[in-house]
Amino acid sequence: MNDRERSVLELIVENYIVFAEPIGSITISKAMKKKVSSATIRNTMSELEELGFLYKPHAVAGRVPTPKAFRYYVNSLPASGVPGKKELKALETLSRLRYAYTEEVMADASRVLAAISRCPSIVVEPRVDTMLFKEVEFVRLSRDTILIVFVTTSGMVHRRFVDTGEDIEQGVLDEMKHYMNERFSGMPFYALKENIIKDMRKDRENFQALYRKIQDALDVLVGEEEKREIYIEGASKMIGIPEFSDVEKLKDLFKALENKERLIQLLDRYLSEEGINVILGSESDMKGMEGMSIITSAYRIGQNSYGLLGIIGPMRMNYSRLIPIVGYTARAVTDLFKLM
């Protein structure tokens, strides 16, 4: 694209973000302070339409940006940015609080992010296999049922019920607890599985059955990555937005947000990528999200554990305002976990 085409396209996108209706040449001419005639702008708009950046929803109407136009616009935004004063003030409430549990941080971050962005927010907890083991607790619930409680170094707690198929005495459970806490503390969960298998081969007989049950619990815990916790706030904020005046579209969106496992699968694709990621419309490959965008950024717990937070909104969301908010929130959450 030449400079004129870039200027016209950016102005069309920015006006469409505000007004949510087709943009005509007169509107763009006024925005350019009539330095370029409406006729010239119409020609430029036709060229952009041929390139796939605009489309005409009606026979006689202005143009609407395509997903290709939004992708170009998002990629052309400055890499850095700072939220406005009101947003910064709201985010500072997070840093002033003291949290005992990581789950509280994630829940509060989701709530604050939804409030200041005025969009549904999402916060996904880190993958279990990247987290570090701190300690384990065994609770004997019945003759052949125990509760295994895994605690990570960041304070996250994961519980699994196990059918032992036999009566394991509390003394054996206590002995196993002390052994595991001393031997495996600080070890990543993926390495914990491997080391338990090694210990099974050499440890005495009365630990063998319990080891197998612990390994089964870890297989489920680490294997169920799509079932880990995701915090979603503010879904009702989509009500009243022009794109969702069709009730069926709104229902499809709510169904998509309820499908947490599928949402986590989508977001995990971007978990290893640093900085801000913007997923536009059909890039999400999720029914109900076709006209939506997701802005995400990773936050960190410890050295190697990453979670993800972000917001969901219409494709015409105000990216220049919202991208800095998401990035700043991720940094604020990372800083909070450093203090815990």
What do the pLDDT scores average to? 86
By helix and strand content, what is the structural category? alpha+beta
In helices, the fraction of residues equals 40-55%
Q: How many strands, which pairing sense, and closed or not: the largest β-sheet?
A: 5 strands, antiparallel
Record field, number of beta strands: 10
Overall tally of structural domains: 3
- Which descriptor suits the 3D outline? elongated
List the uncertain runs. none
- Return Rg in Å: 26 Å
**How do the strands line up in the largest sheet?**
7-3-10-9-8
Report the order of strands and helices. Answer: HHHEEHHHEEEEHHHEHHEEEH
Estimate what percentage of residues fall within beta strands.
15-25%
The second-level CATH architecture of the largest domain is: 2-Layer Sandwich
CATH topology of the largest domain: Beta-Lactamase
How large is the count of helical segments?
12
CATH superfamily of the largest domain: GAF domain
**End-to-end CA span:** 50 Å
Textual characterization of the structure:
With 340 residues, the chain is α+β, with helices and mostly antiparallel strands. The protein folds into three domains: 3-76, Orthogonal Bundle (Arc Repressor Mutant, subunit A), CATH 1.10.10; 85-127 and 228-339, 2-Layer Sandwich (Beta-Lactamase); 129-226, Heat-inducible transcription repressor hrca homolog, domain 3 (Enolase-like, domain 1), CATH 3.30.390.60. Helices cover 49% and strands 18% of the residues. The protein is elongated and about 85 Å long.
